[in-house]
Amino acid sequence: MEKENEMKLGLGRFSWVQIIKMLIVLMVVYGLIGPLLMPHPFAFYTVRGSELNYARIFYLHGLTVGFAGITGLLVAQSFNLSELIKKIIFYATIVCVVIGVTGGAINRSMKYKITLWYQILSMFALDVILISLVVGFVIIKDQTLKSTKAYAIGLLASIAAMIAALFGDLAGFILDFGNWPGIFGWYANKIGYTLPQWQDALLRTHSDMIVVSILCLILAIGNYRFGRSLVGDAKKIRSVGEVLIIIGIILMLAIYLVSGLGGSGVQIPHLFTEKGFFEPRGQSVAGVDLGDFVIGVFVFIGGILTTGACAFGKQKNHPLTKSARYTAIGLFIGMLCISLAVGGLGFLEEYRADLYNSDVATTPRGDFGFIFRLLHVDICLLLFPAMMTLMLLAEKSLKAKQNYIFQLLIRWGIIITFIGALIFMLFNYHQFGPGTWVLAIGIIILLVGIIWYVFVNNKKAN
């Protein structure tokens, strides 16, 4: 039944998978011309304490919004949501990607409203996708599916992503229109903020939640697709991982909802500070953000356990095909590298923020902190999850041999890119040092893998 629904979904004579390949080509071209359009396209700022560069922000949104939309479409297909929901998400994904990248290419500031609101349409399309996912999960009639933890992860991650997107809309509205019609400034003052301070809290909530929520959607797909027939210890490990992810999403929602809406007196505290275990925000420069700590302990560890169980655990009744096994192992490697880079190196940056805080011009190693942030966010929390989405797409549409080649390319691309990030962040920070060259090799391998996926001639039913 699922395959029949998938084959009906498309545009003209092209199936949804073929359309997605075209959209990926568009995004890759857009991503490659970024360095030609502006210097440092993946950095919101390049000097500590400098103002945000909106040209770079809108450029990066052209990529991230598009991949979030494609992930939403893959979720709808993998969990076999209703045909109507799948169609809505499919067409919204096309709008999301096409307008996102073309808008990101021409939109350079908050000044020109025509280009600004043109690109904003792509963000509204992502809102439609995420709201549709929530509705789709709620109205599922398959009670067997609803009883699984994979379903709970998919539903909770969809809710978290939807709320994060709406927070971003609210912050963007304030950025564009200021205190009009007056209620936003009133509310900000009631919770102890100026309007710009509240907008900053909303943006921080939006950016942290949306990235982790999309990653959890990817984990939900892999968990549901590859873990349903696990037995023995692998089944128990998977179950523990699922529970950790569910707890992590719930705690993340609670922490960031309070942080975004609760006011200056209830901001996210810091743990493991130079002054002690626990300090309120603002009382300590260093320390691990409680929200980041919860994500690292619950979501990342849970992700490693679930992907590891699916990749290496014993399956009964419906054992994984070789192609599915390749993909599950790739997801595990991706999740492991994300956890080590974001959890490990991010912990180092925050624990010693008195040395590495890139937002404070007086910190002695703030330039390193900027590189930490750039690599562990843009590379490990944005690029790696996008590659994991492509892994899942490839397994769904390529023949086994073709998928094996693709998975090897992406797997080694992730590993080498991760090693380059480690060298860059821990041992040798030079613009053209060894870390840079290893990073470049890894990203080139990833690009070759994407080209292979897009242009390989396959006949597998879509």
Question: Could you name the ranges where pLDDT drops below 50 across 5 or more consecutive residues?
Answer: 1-7
Net shape: globular
β-strand percent reads under 5%
Radius of gyration: 21 Å
| Total strand segments | 5
**Kindly, what is the distance between the CA atoms of the first and last residues, rounded to a whole number of angstroms?**
13 Å
**Share in helix:** over 70%
Main sheet overview? 3 strands, antiparallel
Mean pLDDT: 86
Key features?
mainly alpha; three-stranded antiparallel β-sheet; two-stranded antiparallel ribbon; 5 strands; 75% helix; 3% strand; globular
Describe the protein in words.
The protein is mainly alpha-helical. The chain contains 16 helices and five strands. It has helices at residues 2-8, 16-37, 54-78, 83-106, 113-138, 143-146, 149-177, 183-190, 195-226, 232-261, 290-312, 322-351, 353-356, 366-397, 400-427, 434-455; strands spanning 10-11, 14-15, 270-273, 276-279, 288-289. Strands 4-3-5 form a three-stranded antiparallel β-sheet. The chain has a two-stranded antiparallel sheet with strand order 1-2. Helix 2 runs antiparallel to helix 3 (54-78), helix 3 packs parallel to helix 5 (113-138) and helix 11 runs antiparallel to helix 12 (322-351). The chain is globular, with a radius of gyration of 21 Å. 48% of the residues are buried. Residues 1-7 have low confidence and may be disordered.
